[in-house]
Amino acid sequence: MKAYAAQFESDMENFLEARAKEVVVGGVMVLAIQSLPDDVDQSKTPSGVMFKFVEAGLMDMVNAGIIGELQVDMFNLSIYFVFAKQMTRLIESNGSISIEKMELTDSGLKDAPINAQAVIMQIRAGMEEVIPKHFGRDIVDELVESISKKFMEDIHLLESCNKKAQLFIVLKRI
């Protein structure tokens, strides 16, 4: 996790430096990025819950002898979610931009009933290229079916998670 955080910080510092050169003094830019509320574990957010469903589906396939446990152990999604405090520090250290507004917003999930089919389609779309490259194309449909079953069994996990998982930021060039 420390390596991902270090890489994110390096990439974000470069991104902010480049944008500060492009935006005119007084100009603004808006960012919306996946984030974690300070002191909230990723497993308690919508994306974290969805990754747990993917993991459970993969382990079902291991238990059925379809894929190997070593394949799952070697599977890595290089995804990092920044904390609001961390993002504030990165922006403030830039010196060429200021924070006009920063807030955690809902990830898009509302308190209305969750559309299970839409969530499963989102998981499939997000994993459609990653899974076949590591495990082969022939497991995708079966994996999605397994994830769907897990999702329906444990939908309450998604309903009860912290939905504030997107950081909305308005920055101003100073």
TrEMBL record:
Family (UniProt): Belongs to the methyltransferase superfamily. Type-7 methyltransferase family.
Lineage: Eukaryota, Viridiplantae, Streptophyta, Embryophyta, Tracheophyta
One GO term (biological process): methylation
Record's keyword annotation contains Lipoprotein: no
One Pfam match: Methyltransf_7
Originating organism: Ilex paraguariensis (yerba mate)
Source organism superkingdom: Eukaryota
Keyword Amino-acid biosynthesis assigned: no
Molecular functions per Gene Ontology: metal ion binding; methyltransferase activity
Keyword line: Magnesium, Metal-binding, Methyltransferase, Transferase
InterPro entries given in the database record: MeTrfase_7, MeTrfase_capping, SAM-dependent_MTases_sf
Listed name of the protein: SAM dependent carboxyl methyltransferase
